[in-house]
Inverse folding.
DNA sequence: CCGATTACCTGCACGC
DNA sequence: TGCGTGCAGGTAATCG
């Protein structure tokens, strides 16, 4: 499911029922997801209070008062749903009523907050997601984050950083944008969308939008601008719901209605003054949607 | 080192 | 209807 905007949507949904609440119980229904759960997973979580619900790229980072952080990745099909007892809803929110377990419910966190109790359920049919526990002080050095690139939100991402990061890269521009060691958080959808908005071909060598000095170029500025825009707009829209992604209260995200390229094979390109058609091709084993006419 | 391909897993849409 | 095929928002391991 999830690229950065979907994970950020999940983070915002979980924060009100996790922050300052205590993990009263954890039910772990299998020994592994993509990887085995860490040793004594349940014991290390039980009784911990959540200090902060954070995110790094596509990872959720739950900081605990035990000195450890719970790291969670949703893979392709992971999702969370929040169940609250009836009459126990948080002000201004709506969630699932308590229900029977569903297929592929792998982990349940029973949370006790100051005013409400909640069950937070992790469901993941394909089990490409995973969870890990890491000392909070070592977070940036842990195996998940050690080699991770910059966030595509905020001032860190600009023409100069892109120019510097992509300099000398002979890989296609699309592959460079998907490389989490350079920019962390983009996935197939938002890379296709940012390239379409920028009028840049996904096949172009990444180095061709850079300058040897590492200074920004017109193209790298344009790309940085559109990446930041499309990510911000998608977060605002609650992410994109294609198959699995839901907000934690069960609502769909709605950015999929605003796709210009992704999943629009055969449709007319909507760029002003362009009469091209969106095509699909395969790059490093994954679908790329683009307009060969206006993306150069 | 690099870049490209494959593996991991289930569900669903599609064509025959 | 049933079955085979291909495809899916992820990353890690493996191969040249």
């Amino acid at each position: 499911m999830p690229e950065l905007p979907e994970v950020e949507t999940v983070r915002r949904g979980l924060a009100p029922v996790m922050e300052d609440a205590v993990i009263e119980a954890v039910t772990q229904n299998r020994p592994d997801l993509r990887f085995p759960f860490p040793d004594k997973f349940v014991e290390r979580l039980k009784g911990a209070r959540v200090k902060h619900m954070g995110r790094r790229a596509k990872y959720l980072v739950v900081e605990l008062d035990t000195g450890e952080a719970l790291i969670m990745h949703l893979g392709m099909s992971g999702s969370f749903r929040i169940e609250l007892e009836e009459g126990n809803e948080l002000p201004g929110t709506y969630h699932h009523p308590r229900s029977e377990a569903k297929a592929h419910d792998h982990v349940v966190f029973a949370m006790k907050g100051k005013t409400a109790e909640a069950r937070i359920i992790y469901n993941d049919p394909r089990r490409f997601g995973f969870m890990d526990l890491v000392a909070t002080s070592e977070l940036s050095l842990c195996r998940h984050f050690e080699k991770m690139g910059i966030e595509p939100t905020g001032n860190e991402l600009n023409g100069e950083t892109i120019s510097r990061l992509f300099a000398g890269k002979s890989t296609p521009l699309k592959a460079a944008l998907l490389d989490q060691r350079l920019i962390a958080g983009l996935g197939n959808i938002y890379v296709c969308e940012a390239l379409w908005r920028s009028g840049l071909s996904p096949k172009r060598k990444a180095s061709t939008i850079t300058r040897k000095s590492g200074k920004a170029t017109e193209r790298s500025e344009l790309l940085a601008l559109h990446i930041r825009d499309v990510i911000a707009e998608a977060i605002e829209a609650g992410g994109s719901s294609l198959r699995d992604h839901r907000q934690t209260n069960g609502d769909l995200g709605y950015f999929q209605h605003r796709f210009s390229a992704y999943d629009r094979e055969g449709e007319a390109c909507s760029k002003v003054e362009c009469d091209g058609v969106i095509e699909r091709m395969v790059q490093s084993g994954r679908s790329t949607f683009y307009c060969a006419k206006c993306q150069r």
